[in-house]
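> example.struct
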C-alpha cells in the first residue's frame, strides 16, 4: 500500500467522506482544501521530525500538530493548527485537547 493509499484510508476513517465524492456543494471546496492540507501534513510527518510544541511559531504560521489524548474516550489527534490570540486552533476551531504536544512545519508546496 502506498503512502497516498494509507492516507486516503485514514482520512476516510476519520471523516467518513472522500472530497471527490462529497455531495454537499456548500462545503466541497473546503473539503478539498482541507484534504490537500492534510495530505501535505501527512507527507511532512514522513519527511520531518517532530519538535516540542514550545518551539512552534506563535505568529499565525500554520503547523502540523499532534495532540496526545489523556483519556480513553478520546483518540490522539493530528491536525493543521495555528496559534491565535492565546490558544492553538485547528480547522474545526479551538482544539478539545487544548495544546498539541508536538509539531512540525508544513512542507513547501510543489513547484509547477
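> example.seq
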Amino acid at each position: 500500500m502506498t503512502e497516498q493509499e494509507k492516507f486516503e484510508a485514514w482520512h476516510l476513517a476519520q471523516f467518513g467522506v472522500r472530497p471527490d465524492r462529497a455531495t454537499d456543494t456548500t462545503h466541497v471546496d473546503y473539503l478539498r482544501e482541507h484534504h490537500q492540507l492534510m495530505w501535505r501534513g501527512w507527507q511532512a510527518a514522513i519527511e520531518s521530525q517532530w519538535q516540542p510544541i514550545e518551539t512552534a511559531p506563535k505568529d499565525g504560521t500554520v503547523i502540523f500538530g499532534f495532540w496526545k489524548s489523556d483519556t480513553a474516550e478520546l483518540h490522539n489527534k493530528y491536525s493543521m493548527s495555528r496559534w491565535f490570540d492565546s490558544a492553538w486552533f485547528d480547522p474545526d476551531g479551538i482544539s478539545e485537547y487544548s495544546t498539541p504536544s508536538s509539531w512540525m512545519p508544513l512542507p513547501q508546496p510543489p513547484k509547477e
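> remarks
The two ends are 27 Å apart (CA to CA).
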